[in-house]
């Protein structure tokens, strides 16, 4: 039986499992005074580049991937350890909820360009992982680059995941992965099925065939109505003791790289304004706040077992000193507006 968690009212930002909180603008009398920034591309320039790539008549994704690979974050994607560490944290949440990864059939929403998270779940003992993406972004060279890291740093892989699974099983599965010679063989060894382009809201999976539906920094990129379909699909495909676990990054993603803006920067804009700035496949963010996610889970008939928001203190201070938000968000509490990450564990309510 799944163990019901106490719902956390709030978690300090220092506990943020993927913290990008650095010194930010200090707001005094509504005026931003930058005390320290990290040199990175201005967010509006990045938004222009994304819009330009998305507007190409063909090769939109290859063009953007080339830019990311040459100048951007893809340079770091061959390092599997950030996602393995995230996998270990999620596995501990599931273990504490009495729905361990070992032996579980997992459905992942949002594959991306790498499969480091599914590989982590395989190493933690998952029976199988079927991963869905609306776009076919997976890059075999990145898979093999991550595998090269596994081979070179086996001890570090084991140390990263040892608290999340049986170490003997972990070692056996790691050796099998390291014997893979192609990306297709790697997927077969890891019992990972990649479906893309595919619709996680209409998965085609059999009823009650999944134990865990999971995502990591994906739900924020999906429109609300599609999210509704995904959570309703979970009700159909999850086994009677199945759960969903979604790690949602509700911050302005441009703030991850442009340290001159706050994680709540995008809350200044109307929906129409934000759509003009970032309404494309490379930058889309639904800007749903924590309370809106709570309403969505309730609407879809999910019982929330763990609700853990991470509140950004610099954003709270900025709001207290006059940071402007659009009228759409003005009725929300400062804590709700300043929630930059939300972890939600849920199960379908009894029918």
Describe this structure in words.
The protein has a single domain (about 15-350), classed as 3-Layer(aba) Sandwich (Rossmann fold), CATH 3.40.50.150. It is about 40% helix and about 15% strand. It has 13 helices and 9 strands. The protein is α/β, with parallel strands linked by helices and about 350 residues long. The chain has helices spanning about 45-55, 60-70, 80-95, 115-125, 140-150, 155-160, 165-180, 185-190, 225-235, 270-280, 290-300, 315-320, 335; strands spanning about 25-30, 30-35, 105-110, 130, 190-195, 210-215, 240-250, 300-310, 340-350. The two termini are about 15 Å apart. Strand 6, helix 9 and strand 7 form a beta-alpha-beta unit. The longest helix is centred in the first third of the chain and has 16 residues, at about 80-95.
- Cα-atom radius of gyration: 20 Å
Largest sheet: 7 strands, mixed
- Poorly predicted regions are 13-39
Structural class: alpha/beta
What would CATH call the class? Alpha Beta
Summarize the amount of helix as a percent range. Answer: 25-40%
Distance between the termini: 17 Å
**Name of the CATH architecture:** 3-Layer(aba) Sandwich
Offer a quick outline of the entry.
It is built from 13 helices and nine strands. With 351 residues, the chain is an alpha/beta fold. Residues 13-39 have low confidence and may be disordered.
Comma- or semicolon-separated keywords:
single chain, 351 residues, alpha/beta, Rossmann fold, 7-stranded mixed sheet, 38% helix
Topology:
Blueprint: E1 25-28, E2 31-34, H1 43-54, H2 60-71, H3 81-96, E3 105-109, H4 116-123, E4 128-132, H5 140-152, H6 154-161, H7 167-178, H8 183-189, E5 192-195, E6 210-216, H9 224-237, E7 238-249, H10 271-278, H11 290-299, E8 302-311, H12 313-320, H13 334-337, E9 339-348
Parallel strand pairs: 3-4, 3-6, 4-5, 6-7
Antiparallel strand pairs: 1-2, 7-9, 8-9
Helix pairs in contact: 1-2, 3-4, 6-7
